């Protein structure tokens, strides 16, 4: 679909995997997009598809989507663009952030009359590109409803879960379960391989059994074929896992499975897998076999 000149200009800050997928979704649905990224050359493919460069999307747009690595980075970039802040603006932050920092950022923006919704996305960049992701939103309900047109573009399912910061908490919960499903699948496929069962055959049976999880649909074939082209980086999920453990410690709670997951992912990073897709976690388990057999 071509962009429509009568459509609102939507700002996008950040052209990583998720920011790029969201920009593509907006363009496909006829929106005009003003995009910024710290490395300008990274947005060239999006400019070729109809997006326009903006030195400060907050100065050019009433509604702006933020998609950055951490809340610290989001705070820094938004401060750098402070000259574009205007009362009445709406910022939709898809960054998977630390909950307390996220809530504090919302309060800070509210003092300038800007509405802030933390809106992390559950799903890979590829799922987002296909419109299959889930959006979790925290913030003022009326502002949430005012962005109904964008939620339909950003995901298939949308949940409003409470005040600002609530979505950041819910995203960590979601990523905890998702990550453990993924590493359980990796261990199961490595186990199959180790005992002489075809991983492809095991994946087919698992997908039709009570062991099924959606991780099998998204990551199973990638693990079987050792295709670690990036949909979601392993190192980025490790960042989320560390946030989970920090939040759990503050609440006086142990997360033993998540801590084991952290250790596996740190081993994966040490093996040079951090910039690969998070399905590459299977390689750490595969590489443990010789030590186990010796």
Overall mean confidence score, pLDDT: 95
The count of β-strands is: 9
Helix content: 40-55%
Helix-strand pattern: EHEHEHEHEHEEHEHHEHHHHHHH
Shape, per Cα inertia axes: globular
- Name the strands of the widest sheet in spatial order: 3-2-1-4-5-6
Number of domains: 2
* CATH class membership of the largest domain: Alpha Beta
Find the structural class using helix and strand composition. Answer: alpha/beta
Strand content: 5-15%
CA gyration radius, whole angstroms: 20 Å
Uncertain segments: 290-294
End-to-end separation: 58 Å
Task: Explain what this protein looks like in three dimensions.
With 294 residues, this protein is α/β, with parallel strands linked by helices. The protein folds into two domains: 9-163, NAD(P)-binding Rossmann-like Domain (Rossmann fold); 169-293, N-(1-d-carboxylethyl)-l-norvaline Dehydrogenase, domain 2, CATH 1.10.1040.10. Helix content is 53%, strand content 12%. The protein is built from 15 helices and nine strands. The chain has helices spanning 17-28, 44-48, 57-60, 71-80, 99-110, 125-129, 141-146, 148-154, 166-194, 199-207, 214-225, 234-250, 256-270, 281-287, 289-293; strands spanning 9-13, 32-36, 52-53, 63-66, 90-93, 115-118, 121-122, 134-137, 157-160. The strands form two sheets. The protein has a six-stranded parallel sheet with strand order 3-2-1-4-5-6, sandwiched between helices. The longest helix is centred in the middle third of the chain and has 29 residues, at 166-194. The radius of gyration is 20 Å and the shape is globular.
């Amino acid at each position: 679909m071509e962009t429509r000149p009568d459509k609102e200009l939507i700002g996008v800050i950040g052209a990583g995997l998720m920011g790029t997928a969201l920009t593509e979704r907006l363009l496909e649905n006829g929106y005009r997009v003003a995009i910024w990224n710290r490395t300008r050359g990274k947005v060239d493919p999006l400019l070729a598809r109809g997006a326009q460069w903006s030195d400060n999307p907050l100065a050019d747009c009433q509604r702006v989507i933020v998609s950055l690595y951490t809340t610290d980075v989001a705070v820094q970039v938004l401060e750098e663009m402070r000259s574009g802040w205007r009362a009445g603006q709406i910022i939709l932050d898809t960054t998977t952030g630390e909950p307390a920092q996220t809530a504090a950022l919302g309060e800070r923006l509210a003092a300038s009359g800007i509405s802030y919704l933390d809106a992390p996305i559950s799903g890979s960049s590829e799922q987002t590109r296909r419109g299959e992701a889930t959006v979790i939103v925290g913030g003022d309900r009326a502002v949430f409803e005012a962005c109904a047109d964008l939620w339909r573009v950003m995901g298939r399912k949308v949940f409003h879960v409470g005040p600002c910061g609530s979505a950041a908490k819910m995203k960590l919960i979601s990523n905890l379960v998702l990550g453990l499903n993924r590493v359980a699948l990796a261990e199961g496929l490595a186990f199959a391989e180790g005992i002489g069962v075809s991983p492809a055959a095991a994946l087919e049976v698992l997908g039709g059994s009570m062991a099924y999880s959606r991780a099998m649909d998204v990551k199973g074939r990638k693990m079987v074929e050792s295709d670690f082209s990036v949909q979601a980086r392993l190192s980025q999920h490790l960042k989320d896992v560390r946030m989970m453990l920090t939040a759990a410690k503050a609440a006086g709670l142990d997360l033993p499975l998540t801590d084991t997951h952290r250790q596996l992912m740190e081993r994966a990073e040490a093996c040079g897998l951090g910039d690969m897709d998070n399905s590459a976690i299977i390689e750490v388990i595969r590489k443990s076999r010789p030590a186990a057999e010796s």
